Amino acid sequence: MSYADGEYRVGAKRLIPSNTLKKKPKLWSYIWLHRYLYFMLAPAIIYYITFHYVPMYGAVVAFKDFSITKGILGSDWAGLKHFNYLFSQDKFWQVITNTIIISLYRLTFGFPAPIIVALLLNEVRLKLFKQTVQTVIYLPHFISWVILGGLMINLLSTDNGVLNNIIKALGGAPVGFMSEESYFRGTLVFSMIWKEFGWNTIIYMAALAGINPQLYEAAVMDGANRWQRLAHVTLPLIRGTIILLLILRLGGIMEAGFEQIYVLYHPGVYNVADIIDTYVYRIGLTEGRFSLAAAVGLFKSLINFVLLVIANKLARMMGEQGVY
To answer: Among 6, 273, 277, 290, fewest CB within 10 Å belongs to which?
Structure first.
């Protein structure tokens, strides 16, 4: 061991004293170093602060007897009065049940659909056919629910719907897809899948494009057939993407699709189609009971937050990165 010019030398190796090691830059120095990246990020940060965090102050309305003339600060404090009222109402538990059932239907049938389609398209080698299919299935995403609701009526109406005309031509009785409670939830799920599954395949197609082709070549050299390559190469490598999107879907389990249901439902199917969001709309805006509507919305947000945390924890236990 030798010492020369403040350096420690052990054999041929040189050890630098710890006090000469480069210190990590401070937070503001780091931000300044990457200031251009943060500058590009600034609009998104400003948007979320302005439209997502600042309005959180309005949640206090759920604990007040809100009056438009008095404002939030001037309204009388009500405590848990509105929550107690909600929990005592059978209608509230009915809309909770409808929301959960419809969301589970959407998750069970809607979540696997884009994965299956992406896997099928990934196996297509004819580029023109593949691009044509992608374009066709993407298009419904760009159609608003107002227009799509009109299309659904034209297709499924009991009187003059295309599908019911075919059923009657074959000698069957018309089916009330949009008027009978037993069919309405299925109609909701079908229309949701029709509109969104093509767009959601983009995420999985991007994940599939990131897989190294050499892995497939190695699997073929080992004698793996198409199903074995799918099971042991493709699915394990996109599992992280699948779990991440599943976490986000579970975190929004209390979101059953307000715009879709509001366009398609009617009083005849309220018992099976009235969800939290439509209930909030009716009692909040139509009846002017803003505090009650805020209490329902706050309760829904709390449930979503708890589900998101649980789903993220389970993902980490499975060895995945999770959302945070």
So the answer is: 6
